[in-house]
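Students often ask why inverse folding is considered easier than folding. One informal answer: many sequences map to the same fold, so there is more than one right answer. In these notes we will look at a single instance of the problem. The structure comes first.
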């Protein structure tokens, strides 16, 4: 398993987020990015999670709503990656995948597009 402390991993996630195209992130409304060690169940199977209402489901979404969250899990990423280059690629893919869920793109379509 690749080793990287929480602060270094979070910095890597921020760096990869900054590398995403502006038109992908400019439309994110009321969304926060969070880095956690593992999912609540303790597994290493899940790399990221979109926790919220996609744009296609926001018919009554309004002011005062808690922000949606895009969670990137550190330990599962480190478990599947052999080096930092592979880690950067996997974090990038995870960010694109979870942001796509915000825009209402489901896993089936993401598989078709090669982002799952």
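Output (designed amino acids):
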């Amino acid at each position: 398993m690749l080793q990287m402390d929480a602060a270094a991993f979070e910095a890597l996630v921020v760096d990869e987020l900054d590398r995403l195209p502006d038109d992908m992130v400019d439309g994110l409304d009321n969304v926060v990015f969070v880095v956690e060690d593992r999912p609540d169940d303790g597994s290493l199977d899940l790399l990221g999670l979109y926790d919220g209402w996609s744009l296609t489901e926001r018919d009554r979404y309004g002011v005062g709503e808690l922000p949606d969250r895009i969670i990137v899990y550190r330990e599962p990423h480190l478990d599947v990656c052999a080096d930092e280059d592979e880690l950067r690629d996997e974090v990038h893919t995870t960010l694109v995948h979870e942001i796509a869920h915000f825009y209402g793109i489901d896993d089936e379509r993401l598989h078709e597009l090669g982002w799952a």
